[in-house]
Design a protein that fits this description.
disordered C terminus, about 15% strand, disordered N terminus, binds magnesium ion, alpha/beta, about 230 residues, binds 1,6-di-O-phosphono-beta-D-glucopyranose
Length: about 230
Amino acid sequence: MQKEIESGNMNAVIFDLDGVIVHTDEYHYRAWKKLADRLGVCFDERINNRLRGVSRLESLEIVLENSAFSDIPDAEKAALADEKNKTYQTLLQAMTPDDLSPEVLKTLRALKERGCRMAIGSSSRNAPLILEKIGLAGFFDAVSDGNNITNSKPDPEVFLKAAEYLGVSAKDCVVVEDADAGIEAARRAGMKTIAMGDAARGGQADWSIQSFGEILTIMENIKRVMPILTE
Ligand code: B16
Ligand code: MG
């Protein structure tokens, strides 16, 4: 049976960064691939998808698992994570506002015009650099990222902090994510979820979208009534 409930004050959107706002997920892939090739460790798209939303050091553990490097000392792991990050940051340095797609920019502006509160909820410590490079520094009402959290996705911390910085309740937030770990984190935070890219294939979110512009329609509908399925 389908029932309709009032959606209350649901007027805040928390965006993941890598793979949602901008395609830096491709740069993460290239940087990990370069490190893996140097070490002679197997790395492909399937392994890369497991790194989405996961912190740098946890990602390294996944890259090195089942390899001769899985038990190296922590200091050596930190050096390898640093090496990957240097490659990644070199790619980030070449970014400009042209790396932001016109559809993403148009949608973000339209949401803002409609009074939507917006935050970033990213596991990345490079989030401030990326936002500056693509011309979005100062655009969002709040930024919660890898620099202010202890536990990365699927822990809900990054999204709960984003809601706190926005000054809204978790139940009034919708999270847009490309990672299964991010969808799980948002659900654990008690938030609604919109999946795109890799996460859209997982089928765990409240909505799955093919293109960023669909977020506008979802938010416009949500502000009127929100249909839910009941038994
Ligand atoms: P950094 P997101 C995440 O960003 C990436 O998806 C993940 O692949 C990366 O390991 C993590 O940030 C940490 O990034 O090395 O830049 O601190 O998708 O949560 O915006
Ligand atoms: Mg992501």
